[in-house]
Design brief:
The chain is an alpha+beta fold and 118 residues long. The chain has a single domain, classed as 2,3-Dihydroxybiphenyl 1,2-Dioxygenase, domain 1, CATH 3.10.180.10. Helix content is 21%, strand content 41%. The protein has an eight-stranded mixed beta sheet, with helices on one face. Strand 3 and strand 4 form a beta hairpin. 21% of the residues are buried.
């Protein structure tokens, strides 16, 4: 089950990006570390992830939250079976996210993730 799909925006000025998305679109800050997650107050799955330039290497183009760690592991196994290029290894991050980055056929980098707690 997919919980949400969200784009990543790379910025040199996180505060300016925060003001832009909150003041113009009414998004609220849901998370600030290690990246800033902004979401709709009406639909928590409608999000934009703002990263300070250089925070993520490689920088994903968008993320797909697949719901739980087991689903991340299954997606990783499927991607490897199909010979997809894994551009960031399967990892449980210290901030409570299990994820990996995979390159789609055209080179778009997808962050496949699930929140697993800390």
């Amino acid at each position: 089950m997919i919980n949400r799909i969200h784009p990543y925006v790379e910025t040199a000025d996180v505060d300016a990006s925060r003001r832009f998305y909150t003041e113009i679109f009414g998004l609220t800050v849901a998370m600030e570390t290690p990246v800033m997650a902004l979401q709709s107050p009406d639909l928590s799955s409608a999000q934009v992830i703002v990263c300070r330039r250089g925070t993520e290497t490689p920088q994903p183009d968008f993320g797909i939250d697949v719901g739980d760690a087991e689903a991340v592991d299954r997606a990783h196994a499927q991607a490897r079976e199909r010979g997809c290029r894994i551009v960031y290894p399967l990892t449980t991050e210290p901030w409570g996210v299990r994820r990996f980055f995979v390159s789609d056929p055209d080179g778009t980098t997808v962050n496949v993730l699930a929140h697993v707690g800390t």
